[in-house]
Structure formats: structure tokens, C-alpha cells
Amino acid sequence: MAKPEELVFAPLGGVGEIGMNLSIYGLGSRQQRAWMAVDLGVSFGDEEHLPGIDLIMPDISFLEKERKNLMGLVLTHAHEDHFGAIIDLWPKLKCPIYATQFSAALFEAKCAAERNAPKIPVTVVPSGGRVDVGPFSVEFIPVAHSIPEAHALAIHTSAGTVLHTGDWKIDPTPTLGAPTDEKRLRELGEEGVIALIGDSTNAVRDGRSPSEAEVARTIVDLVKAAKGRVAVTTFASNVARIKAVAAAAKAADREVVVVGRAMERMVQVARECGYLDGVQNFRSPEVYGHLPQDKVLALCTGSQGEARAALARIANDDHPEITLNRGDSVIFSSRTIPGNEKAVGSIINNLVMQGVEIITDRDALVHVSGHPRRDELRDMIAWVKPQLLIPVHGEALHLHEHAKLARAAGVPRVLVIRNGDLVKLGPGDPGIIGEVPSGRLYKDGTILEDSKSRAVVERRRMAFSGCAFVAIAMTEQGELADDPEVDLVGIPEKTREGEPFDDLVFDAVVSTVEGLPKARRRDADALGESVRRAVRAVINEHWGKKPPCLVHVLTV
Predict the structure, then answer these.
(1) 466-555: what CATH class?
(2) CA pseudo-torsion sign 281, 284, 286, 291
(3) Which of 209, 309, 385, 496 could join 302 in a cystine, given CB atoms 3.0 to 4.6 angstroms apart?
């Protein structure tokens, strides 16, 4: 009798962290499995720890090795942390991609805006529809979230059904799109779900996430009460919020001016997909200055403090068309993602110094999360009745709290895992059965580097302690042909005693060269290493830091 096929799961990103989501499911024997990937997202570089790194992506080396067995990539929704890595990584996989209409249209627009983006075909699946991806039958179940057409995936296999929730919440009164499909989720629970792979982002928060409808009412009140110009900044992907801002502007007899490329692109795709039907046409930035102050509302990118986004330029008073003055208002209809606090704070302070009134979610209900709080997590568990729950999409605390809640709710098995853990879901007892390669890739300009990349490591060191450059010209007899050249970058000009560092380093180079035996002076490698050590030692003695030192030896 043939052994039943084994269903396995592994996260390659998005567990123990928020962002960079990539999950894989495998079906078959240990020797031969068919694989399916769910989402392929990014997280964003942190200038403090990763200077010059724009994006961080999951390491897909395992999928590259299994490429012939990779049946497809399925997208839950079109947020960057779920689909932002596709343009860079798909050429290494070249597998079919499945998404619903809005996600596919937004991805097409993203490709069109990228220079030299590869041609990447996407198969469109209707919301609520089903598609076969190799031996996986994938059902797209609508859920409420902060972007149109977010879906949980019911993954039907010969070994049982898994519910992969993606990002979701329960919003009985969404202002755009369908509410979370409780009826279908309850049906799945009756049919039997062997595992729930669930969003943990808000597992530390009690109660329920408020509705988008409540935010929409607040924004109407704020915009109506405003005296001067009004600017609203929000995540460009939150089309429901864009629609709410448009309704508020209309109620206050204001024109909406869209400012920022990401916002323009989102508005265009949302109109094409019918999500802004009946919403007034928006104006371009050129008309902003010609409209009366109480008749204009600027809808801006830059809610996370992005340096090149519209709001940062407005706050720095260097936007070519948009200005704000004393008595004007800015509504931050967003929450600050951890790590962006300094950048957002800088923008707020610059605006306050210009006399602008700031309204954030600390002052009024101008933002709600798109993720479930604890009561919503309990509802999902009660509807789906999973045999196993694996918390994902969260940092260690979020995963821990989701797991604790699931155990208290009576889920028979709960498993907290890490990126790279290979988990058997069924048949039989679930558990971690191995490990697959996982890690991070850094997008450095146009180049993808792994986390051990010399460039990434050295740049981090240089950001901390600068760099010393030394050039030495030697004769064939092992004598200095000229004075050494010294260039210190990011190193203080003078010591505590006021002595120039250039002079200290120059003297250290000369004395090191002259103190070496002639045989070592004629060996460029040995000479360079001796000088490097001496330079780092003298800088450390007077500064307390050891910068990288690059020595170039030229024989003339």
C-alpha cells in the first residue's frame, strides 16, 4: 500500500519579524515534493544599521534548488511586505504567479514604473475563486484589510486543508470591498482544517480593531472644521482611506490634489479596478497654488517619513508646488512603523515650526490597523477549529502571545517556529522535522547581496568609525620615493589635545616604513599590512576607535 503524501510548511521570511513574508508548502515524500510559495515580500533597510541598503528580501536559495518542483507563487494581497520582492527575485524562479485582479493590476503598474523590469506574467483568479497549483487546490477567501482584495488562502491537499490567513481583520462595516467571509470560514471549520497559519501582528492588543467607517467619520469632521489648507498623509495602498479623504473633501467643498508618485499610481489602479467609482476626479499639484486656501486638500505620500516623499519635501519647504503655512493642518492618517519614529518626528517638528497644526492618531481616530486584535483572533479560531495553529507575521512577543491565546482557546496543538523550520502538518502528529536554508538578501542600489557581503559589513564599520586611506610609493631598493599620501574620511580632524590626526597618521606611516628591514619594505603585502596595523593602532590610541584602513603600495 502506497504511503500517504506528507504536507509540510516552512516560513522563509516573516516569522520573528514583521515584513519580508515568504511561506512555502510542500506535498509528497521526503525524497520528492511539489512546492508552492505564498507571498514574496520585502522589509526596509535601516540607515543606522544598514547604511545604503534600500530593501531586505528573503533568501530564496532553497527554492532556486527546487525550481523544477516549484508549482507557483500565490499572492494574498499587494502590500510591499507581501509582494515587493517579486521583480528582483522572480527571474531566479520563473514560476507561475496567481493573484486577484487588483493585486495583478497594481503589480503591472509597479513593473511599468521600474526601469528594465522583466516581463512577469500573472494569472488572475477571481476573488472567492479557486485555482489548482500543481497538487494544491487554492481557494481565495475574502478578508478585510487595509488594501483592496486581501485574501486568506484555503489550501486543499490530499493530506488535509490548511488555512493561511495572510493579513486580515474583522470589520463588519468596511468602507470598501467585502467584509471577512465568516460564512465560508465557518464552513471550512465544519469540513476540517488541519492547520491555521495565522497573522500575529496585533496579538498583544485586547479587544477588536475599530472599523474603517469610524475613521471615515472622524476625517469628515476634521476636514470640515479646518480653517486653512489641509494635507492628509496615509499609506498609498489604503484605497479605503483615500476614498474617505475624498468624501471628506467633498463634504467640506474642497478639491483633492494628489501629491506623490506612489499615490498617483494607486489612485490610477483603483479607478481602473472600479474601487473609486463615483468618487470625484482629483487634481494635479500644478493647480494647488491657484485654489483658495479653504478649498483645497492635498493627499500626500510620506506618512512614514520617507526622505524623498511629498510630505518630507513640503516640511523642508522645498516642494516645487505645495506649501503649508501658519494655520494650515496636516492629518497623519497612519501609524508610524517601528524604526521610522525619528524620520516622522523630524517632519512633524519641521511642520510645527512653520506654524502648521498636526493631528495624529494620538489626537483623534484617524487611523485603524488592518490586523486582528485578540478578540478577532479568538473568533477566527472558533470559526475554523484548527487542529494545529502556527503563529506567523510577527516578532517574538507577538508569536508568543498568539500561541498563548490559541492554547487558552482550546487549539489541540500550537507550534511556535522560526524562519527556516520545516514543519510536518499532516498526516499524523505535526512537528518540526528539519530545516531549510533561510536568510536575508540586501538590495544595494541595483545589486543583490547576501547578509555576509563584504560591502554590507564594511559599510556598517565605516559608518561607525570612518576609514583611513594611505598610499605609499616605494623604490625598488625599498626606500620611500615620496611622502606618503594620507586621506582620513569620517575621522575627527584633531585629537583631544588638539593635534591634527593627519599629522599623527603621517608620522606613524613614515616611522613604520623606516623601522622595517629592507627585505620587508620590498614586499608590498608585508609592508601594507604593517602600515595598516600601525595606522589603526595610533588612531585607536587617540580616539578609542579602530577604523578600517586601506593601504596602497606602489613600486616606482
Answers:
(1) alpha beta
(2) positive
(3) 309
